[in-house]
Amino acid sequence: MRRRRTGRLAGMRMIETPFGPAGVDLDRPDGVSRGTLALGHGAGGGVTAPDLVAVRDAAVAAGFTVARVTQPYRVAGRRAPAPATQLDTAWLAVLAEVGGGPLVVGGRSSGARVACRTATAAGAVAVLALAFPVHPPGKPEKSRLAELDTGLPTLVVNGDRDPFGLPPEAPGREVVVIPGAVHDLRKDLEAVAQAVTGWLARR
Predict the structure, then answer these.
(1) How buried is residue 46: exposed, middle or buried, by Cβ count under 10 Å (0-12/13-18/19+)?
(2) Would 176 disulfide with which of 119, 171, 191, 195, CB 3.0-4.6 Å?
(3) Is Protein biosynthesis set as a keyword in this record (predicted)?
């Protein structure tokens, strides 16, 4: 297990943050980049999640540089997520060191929440939220919907069977629903990629 993890880290660029090193996997398009899309992972997952990889491929093909960011707690080998303030601070530290041109921030699940909370501070022009967890499963009263009110153009891609809920559309917020998909969005990765490609074309 340690050998695999070391190999994975060897493929990342490491960036120091106040809470330890974060990892960045950077993919660039052919030719001049139109901007940077920064993507964060879910609470217990990583940047190789199928939806993040599908979005990476679509964004690079659309001319964007894509930075997939691994939070310090995951670099350290922990699965339990760090507190929100630590996640946000580490994320902003990484964004200060990567990218160029207009910045779009995003991620899946917990990573989407981090991107939403920090979008203004990061100087982002738009937000991409994959599988945004509106509430914990079975607890709709504990809504996180306010985090989506970033004041920036926002695309949300969620499955209609996601136990974490489905946010409604709102001014400045476009919601694409993937039929039959749950929280991991594996049901139709092509639809996820197409939604993101069309949205990025308008940035």
Answers:
(1) middle
(2) 195
(3) no
Question: How far apart (Å, rounded) are the C-alpha atoms in residues 104 and 96?
Answer: 13
Superfamily of domain 2-200: Alpha/Beta hydrolase fold, catalytic domain (3.40.50.1820)
Cα atoms found within 13 Å of the Cα of residue 141, Cβ hemisphere only: 0
- CA distances from residue 66 to 72, 98, 142 in whole angstroms, order as listed: 19, 10, 32
Q: Check pLDDT > 70 for residue 167.
A: yes
Largest separation between any pair of C-alpha atoms in the chain: 48
Residues 6+ apart with CB under 8 A from 148: 116, 129, 132, 154, 156, 167, 170, 173
2-38: pLDDT as tens digits:
222 333 454 689 999 999 999 999 999 999 999 999 9
User: Can you read off the two tokens belonging to residue 64?
Assistant: 């964007």
d(CA 41, CA 49): 8
Residue 63 CA to residue 152 CA, distance in Å, equals: 21
**Beta strand extents in 62-137 (DSSP E only):** 65-70, 103-108, 126-130
CB 122 within 8 A of CB 95: yes
